[in-house]
Amino acid sequence: MQLIDTHVHINFDVFQGNLGSLEQRWREAGVAHLVHSCVEPNEFQEIRSIADRFPELSFAVGLHPLDVDKWTEGMADQIENLASSDSRVVAIGETGLDLFKADNYQQQELAFISQLEIAQKLDLPVIIHCRDAAPQLRKIILDLKRRSPKPVKGVMHCWGGTPEETEWFLELGFYISFSGIVTFKKAQQIKDSAKIVPADRLLIETDCPFLAPVPKRGKTNEPSFVRYVAEHLAELRKVPLAELASQTTANACCLFGIELPKENS
Question: Looking at residue 265, what is its pLDDT?
C-alpha cells in the first residue's frame, strides 16, 4: 500500500536534525511520496536541498496569504522563475486567502491573483489555503475563469469548509484535501464534507508539523501520520483502507504529475 502526503513543511526548525528518522518512519508507514509546500519564495533553496536528499519529495513555490506583507513588485517574476528552474516543482503555493487571522484582503487578493496567473501560464496546479474566505475565494476564481480560457486547477488544502462550500470548489474542478482535523471528534462539518467528495477528487495530507491526527493529537505532526488520516477517511466513507490509499495516491499523481516507482511484489 502506497500513500502520498500532499502537504508537508519538513523544512521547519522543529524537524532539523531529525530528517533521517522522519524518513524511516514515513517509509515504514507506506508513504511513497511527499509534496512540500512553500510559505515564501525565500524557502526555495532550503526546500530544494531537502529534495536533493529525498528523491520521493516534490515541492511548490509561492507566498502564503498571511505573509503578503512580503509581496513586492518583482515577486511574481521571482516565483515564476523559480518554478521554471526545477522539474521537481509541481505546484504554485501555498497561496489563497485567510480572513480569520488577517483583514488585509486587498493585499491578499493581489498576491493570490498573481499566483493563479503564474500557475495558469506554467500549467501548474495551485495549492490553496482558504480560511474564513470561501465566498471571496470562489469569486476570484470564477472571475479569472471568465477572463481566461485557460483552466485553473489545484487543491483546497487542509480543507475545513462546509459541505456547501465543498460543492462550490468541486464544481470549479478542484481537488479537496483533508488533514488530521478530519479525525477530531468535534469536526463534524469537515467529516460531512469528507463524505461527499467524489473518490477521484480526494487527497490526504498532514500539513505537518501542525494538526497531528488522532491518536497523535497534541504531538508534533509528521508525514508518517498521514496513515491515520487515510484510516479515518476510509472509515467515514465506508471503503477499505487499501482502496482509499490507492485512489488518493492515483489522484495525487494525476494532479501533481508524480510518477511513483512500482511497488515490489
Answer: 46
